[in-house]
Amino acid sequence: MSRTSIRNFTGEPVSREQLETILKAGMAAPSAMNVQPWRFVVVTEKEKIAQALGIPEGVVPLCIIPVGIPAKDPAPKDKWKPENIHWEQW
After folding, report:
1. Continuous segment of H or E residues that includes residue 81
2. 23-57: per-residue pLDDT in tens?
3. How many domains does the chain have?
4. What is the largest CA-CA distance in the chain?
5. Mean pLDDT of the chain
6. Structural domain of 37
């Protein structure tokens, strides 16, 4: 419930330690039969993104996830609406 969307970043580089923490979290995700089919391409210079996407044949990128240092630290929004809950009936 503390998740929030960040749309503005400082431009400060994300440290290698922070990137490794993100990668460890991604690798901790469950996979069918524990196959762990993921591979990650980390690009730290945006000018090199197109070059880095020259991936081997047969590899299909799932997504590109930009990360950065938030410009602000907004508080999560309270989206609790008890009127949207129906107990035991509609």
Report:
1. none
2. 999 999 999 999 998 889 899 988 888 888 788 88
3. 1
4. 56
5. 90
6. 32-56
